[in-house]
């Protein structure tokens, strides 16, 4: 079908979940690094990283990002992608702060949206500021698309040179307040991409499995992980991030998509 290897991103912890929601949630630097290693050993080449403070609360503290990054690097080779979204309500300076550590990649959300009961704020000023910090630190941006109109924002900001010519796109589908995770929405979004543009899909909750399968069949890449979906199947909690990665690897093999090594992922992304 497709001879291009599939890059698997694993979102290992996120900012919204608590141990009450999901008892196996990795929270300490050791736990997050161990979970990242498990995901990489299972087949992930990119780790999408949030961190937690000593109380288990989401944090953008540079010292914690540094510690977790070092621990992951000691355990495995992978592309590390920082979240600049933080948690809902995180201050703009805090969202940018970890970028000074110069990760391989960082997210750049393309607009403000309802996020369940909250508002995930990404004003034009916010986008410009984070984009500038990403470029200043030589980091590869991953543009997070939650809704169709955000594709128009991408085009507009490209014309203004706010976004560098080289970027990766992640369609995040199924957030209450954003575009749902139906396959027709993925098809619609993919049609808006420039020829040769690399893209990933992250399906939330029940959308994770069908969107992963369709994205791989369409020649795209996938993001799985506890941040997006805590269930392995209806009513059954996933045991780990690695378990979610392993399933995608099995499906990829049935679709004749090889799993990208870290080196291949770097070549695909140009980093």
Structure description:
The chain contains 9 helices and 14 strands. The relative contact order is 0.19. The longest helix is centred in the first third of the chain and has 14 residues, at 29-42. Helices cover 36% and strands 20% of the residues. Strands 1-2-5-6-9-10-11-12 form an 8-stranded parallel barrel, surrounded by 7 helices. A two-stranded antiparallel ribbon has the order 3-4. The chain has one domain: Alpha-Beta Barrel (TIM Barrel). The chain is of the alpha/beta class. α6 (183-190) links the parallel β10 and β11 (199-203). The chain has helices at 29-42, 62-75, 92-96, 124-136, 149-159, 183-190, 208-217, 241-254, 262-269; strands spanning 8-11, 46-49, 51-52, 58-59, 79-82, 105-109, 113-115, 118-120, 140-145, 168-173, 199-203, 221-224, 231-233, 236-237.
In short:
With 271 residues, this protein is α/β, with parallel strands linked by helices. It has one domain (8-269): TIM Barrel.
């Amino acid at each position: 079908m497709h001879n291009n290897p599939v890059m698997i991103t694993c979102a290992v912890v996120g900012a919204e979940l608590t141990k009450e929601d999901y008892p196996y949630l990795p929270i300490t630097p050791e736990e997050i690094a161990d979970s990242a290693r498990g995901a990489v050993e299972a087949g992930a080449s990119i780790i999408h990283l949030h961190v937690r403070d000593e109380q288990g609360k989401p944090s953008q503290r540079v010292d914690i990002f540094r510690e977790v990054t070092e621990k992951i690097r000691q355990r495995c080779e992978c592309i590390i992608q920082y979240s600049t979204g933080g948690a809902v309500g995180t201050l703009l300076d805090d969202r940018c702060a970890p970028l000074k550590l110069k990760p391989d990649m960082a997210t750049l959300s393309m607009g403000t949206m309802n996020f369940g009961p909250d508002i995930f704020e990404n004003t034009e000023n916010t986008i410009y500021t984070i984009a500038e910090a990403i470029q200043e630190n030589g980091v590869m941006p991953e543009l997070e698309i939650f809704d169709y109109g955000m594709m128009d924002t991408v085009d507009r900001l490209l014309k203004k040179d706010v976004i560098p010519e080289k970027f990766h796109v992640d369609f995040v589908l199924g957030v209450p307040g954003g575009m749902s995770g139906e396959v027709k929405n993925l098809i619609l979004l993919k049609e808006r991409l420039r020829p040769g543009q690399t893209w990933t899909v992250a399906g939330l909750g029940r959308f994770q499995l069908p969107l992963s399968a369709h994205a791989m069949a369409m020649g795209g890449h996938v993001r799985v992980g506890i941040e997006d979906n805590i269930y392995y199947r209806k009513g059954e909690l996933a045991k780990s991030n690695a378990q979610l990665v392993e399933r995608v690897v099995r499906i990829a093999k049935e679709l004749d998509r090889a799993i990208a090594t870290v080196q291949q992922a770097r070549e695909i992304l140009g980093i």
